[in-house]
Design a protein that fits this description.
This protein is an alpha+beta fold. It folds into 3 domains: 165 residues, Transposase IS200-like (Alpha-Beta Plaits); 55 residues, no CATH class; 95 residues, no CATH class. 49% of the residues lie in helices and 7% in strands. The protein has a 4-stranded antiparallel sheet, covered by helices on one side. Helix 8 crosses helix 10.
Length: 349
């Protein structure tokens, strides 16, 4: 009998999974941190937020909110990426998780409040700790800004000072014993999903690949459509995520101060991204920019927007010598004509 399709409707979900045969899935601090790192990457890729979590040695609880109909693929990627990491590290083979993750859609604020308390009290019920906020791998112990995926809206509303009582436990039992993945109306995702060719109409192949995967297509789907290998698509996805990560880092530092604070990489002109990174990023940022976008693309923008700008003679000298391999001295840039100034001069004359 085929498995019932999951609900992927946008909203809050309680997610739970445990190790196969109740085995340990986090052996030490590095493992816990790796799982959080993978969740953060998936959050950036698929656009969900975490409102509560607790990672125990052999299972996890998450309260997350999706912004697109991509819950299944988001969680599949998290579990698969962590399984690969864990199996490689500990030289093991076979499945790490007991099966498909369990998920419950949360539609009632009462359950959200109780669910936050239920998740936070997990290590107390297991007698690992006695107080909320003292267990390192629960959300109450994390700080704002530590992981951008963490949203403290609900955990700050909930009273965590009192014990988890019998009434709340009964409510949670009813909720957790209810039919999994319930939804009043089954959604026909394929009917409403954009066709792959629509993504590639924009002319930016890498952006189209990223958007298609983010919105529910598998990398195998995209690979078959483009006639590329799965490995090639994986590499493109990885590089595009790295571009997004660099862009967001610089955006949050205020480098793109004249643009909307919420602007994203895919909405941004690549030439402006290169120019601002070269002018205002640090050495590591510039080095990463060359690695991700390639020397040719960066050099083209540099020559057009920076090379003749007398304000950046020292910076241009460094870029030319270190990154472009040019055998020039600083006087070379003093002799360059400022293209922008020349245009203004001609217009004014």
């Amino acid at each position: 009998m085929p498995r019932k399709p999951r609900s992927n409707a946008v909203g809050f979900y309680h997610i739970h999974n445990r190790g196969v045969d109740r085995g340990v899935v986090y052996k030490n601090r590095d493992d816990f941190l790796k799982f959080l790192e993978i969740m953060q990457e998936a959050s950036e890729e698929y656009g969900f937020g975490i409102y509560a979590f607790c990672l125990m040695s052999n299972h996890y609880h998450l309260l997350l909110k999706t912004t697109k109909e991509n819950l299944s693929i988001s969680m599949q990627k998290i579990n698969a990426r962590y399984s690969i990491y864990f199996n490689n590290r500990y030289k093991r083979v076979g499945p790490l998780w007991q099966g498909r993750f369990k998920s419950w859609m949360v539609r009632d604020d009462r359950y959200l409040t109780t669910l936050v308390r239920y998740i936070e009290y997990t290590p107390i019920k297991a007698r690992i700790t006695q107080t909320i906020g003292s267990y390192e791998w629960a959300m109450s112990s994390r700080k704002r800004g530590e992981y951008p995926m963490l949203d403290f809206e609900w955990i700050e509303k909930v009273d965590l000072s009192r014990e988890f009582d019998a009434r709340e436990q009964k409510m949670m039992n009813e909720f957790l014993n209810s039919r999994l993945d319930q939804d009043e109306k089954k959604r026909d995702e394929d009917k409403h999903r954009k066709k792959l060719e629509e993504y590639f109409a924009c002319g930016d192949r890498d952006k189209a690949i990223y958007q298609a995967v983010k919105e529910g297509y598998t990398q195998k789907d995209v690979a078959a459509y483009l006639g590329l290998s799965y490995v090639s698509i994986s590499k493109i996805m990885k590089r595009y995520r790295q571009k997004i990560s660099l862009f967001r880092k610089l955006r949050d530092k205020g480098i793109f101060w004249s643009y909307d604070k919420g602007v994203e990489y895919g909405e941004f002109n690549e030439g402006v991204f290169i120019e601002h990174t070269l002018k205002y990023g640090d050495f590591d940022d510039i080095q990463k920019l060359f690695g991700l976008l390639g020397k040719r693309a960066v050099k083209k923008t540099w020559e057009k927007e920076m090379k003749s700008d007398k304000r950046f003679i020292k910076l241009n000298y460094m870029i030319a010598r270190v990154f472009l391999g040019m055998d020039v001295e600083s006087d070379y840039f003093k002799e360059q004509k400022n293209a922008r100034f020349e245009k203004l001069r001609l217009l004014a004359s």
